[in-house]
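Model: Ready when you are.
Researcher: Fold this.
Model:
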Amino acid sequence: MSKKDWFREAKYGLFIHWGIYAIPGGEWKGAPSPHGSEWIMKNMKIPYAEYKELAGQFNPQSFDPYYYVRNAKKWGMKYLTFTAKHHDGFAMYDTKVSDYNVMNTPYGKDIVKQLADACAEEGLTFCLYYSQMQDWEDPDGNGNTWDFDPAKKDFKRYFYNKCLPQVKELLTNYGKIGMIWFDTPYDMPKELCEELADTVRACQPDCLINGRIGYGLGDFREVADNTIPVLSRSDVWESPMTMNSSWGYIKRDQTSKSAADVLQNLVRIVGKGGNLLLNLGPDENGLSPKVCTDALDVAGEWLEKYGDSIFGTTNIPNFPYLLTWGDLTYSKARKTLYFHVKKYPEFPYRVLLTGLETKVKRVTLMADGSPLKYSQSYEPGRDEHRLYIFLPEVCPDADDTVVAVELEAEATAQSI
């Protein structure tokens, strides 16, 4: 069994971006910061001497690790990834490498340990994010050019004095780590990325490394933020997405993806063979926006009913035409295509899939298991395979009506 198997089967994970940047919440001295709140120090060129004062205010009395872990499970997620240290250099755990950490705040408790313990108790795979190149607190880290002269930076000194020792701490002191999520490698020297990868594998051989370690050294591909590939992929990959406009908490943004948005992204990503890592950004008290968690509650209820169309699936074949009515997922083991109908048809209440070569065995509505009529044909003159599915007059599920199409053999798609 490959160490990637758990990840390939997981499909859906919770990302948590949280740090002292949650206190300003995307605003500094009354002015809004562009882009994400977690980049506020760099985007607004805040002097480290001022920014570090946020640590003296960090005291999230409402934070409950079990809230996040248990809700992640309720939402259908299989793993949790937490920002142990983001680009601002502040560690959310008890590090002995730097005093710039959560233990030296009014809160004074190890966030990583709390989440690691809760995940272990609840049976959720625990993963960690670590910014390996950018560090705006360290004179030798990448990114802070307003406090520290770039000409005097010695990145190797940062790498060996802070980055590598902290990664060792994280992989030594918190039990089994399912995956380590590196970020923004930029032009980090390849030999240092290789040493970092070797260190991870020496500490925890079964710990996956995401693709943003750089140079193809990771165990899977991390696609661009908030994106979905056009084509289905058979390799292992992940798409990180936000619930709103920012990874970290931002006061002025009280919007959220709807449950329908979440499900559409999940279905599209899973159908193309990937995982969705969906982010929440808690506020300074440790609470996530209710509008976001309400949407996740609804999406989780849908997954309780239709989880078989997501979990236990693999990438679909690359069918030759865009679908106007929704998306597909596919279980190779069950020889079943799942039609996810998002745009419900008008009379005569049918949807079309063009290009399926495999013979259909049976078609049922997942909501109640009732059989549906279908028509499958091949027109030799145009070399065109067509499958029509006839749906009930009344839409069973406005967010996503799922139809199970059982096949005689493995699904194959014609090319054009």
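Researcher: Now this one.
Model:
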Amino acid sequence: MEYLEAQFTIACSANLLQTARDLLADAAAEAGFESFEETAEGLKGYVQKALFNKGILEHQIAEFPLQDTSISYSIVEAENKDWNKTWEDNGFDPIDIDGKLVIVDANGSQESASQSPNPKKLIKIDAKLAFGTGTHETTQMIVSTLLSMAEANGGTLSGKRVLDCGCGTGILGLAASMLGAKEVVGYDIDEWSVRNTMHNAEINDVKNVRALLGDASVIRPLEGTFDIVLANINRNILLNDMETMRSKMAANACFIISGFYEEDIPLLVNKAKALRLCLKAQKGKGQWRCLVFSPLL
């Protein structure tokens, strides 16, 4: 998958720089950008070459809502490399979610997960060119929501069929499987992510996870519906694909989404309402938000 890298330079007063960064990230997402890094001068953003809309980006910058702020940018082709190499080389510390599940680097030490007198569920992640090591707040919020669902159902997701939209490393589907889900189907537009999901299923000895290559259209031919639909994806893709996701939900399904900011919530809630989905819960971690919906009966 080919990416473009944009270097955004923001000229504004120092006390407004963080606000400007946040607003710019939201504006650039309209043009297809899906990930960002803060820099001293402003922001660095990444967008798939095929999804980049320069016209929208220029319009968003021209209409930037912060007064006395100017934005310039340059775009180059991003180096085709393993974006997870830094943490692959250095590893990451075990991530404990709600004291019930631990995510560990498959290539590092796993001792901490067994030190508790009450052993926790353990997920080993070996990320190769895929998003989702568990270090990101959005991943943690969705896994925490799954844990709460299982606890409310006697500690298990037994009998549940799960759809993981944009599966990345497969971490969300693996968590659902380890909590008792009977079947997990994931999909991703990135071939590396599909392979990585299946690799992580293998190293965790999980047999009921499969991953499909493609966008949301690949789920249309799937037979039956799903009891839990997960989507840790940016706002624009959620808005574009939510109708297809909705078409695969069972009558009493739970729809858990993350990958967006506070200011994105109204758009997502309105889209969900139009699809007869009712907001049941929401949570936040840092600047990120997570929403839980269920179909209106």
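Researcher: Key takeaway?
Model: Helices lie at 17-29, 54-62, 85-90, 137-152, 171-178, 191-203, 235-247, 265-274.
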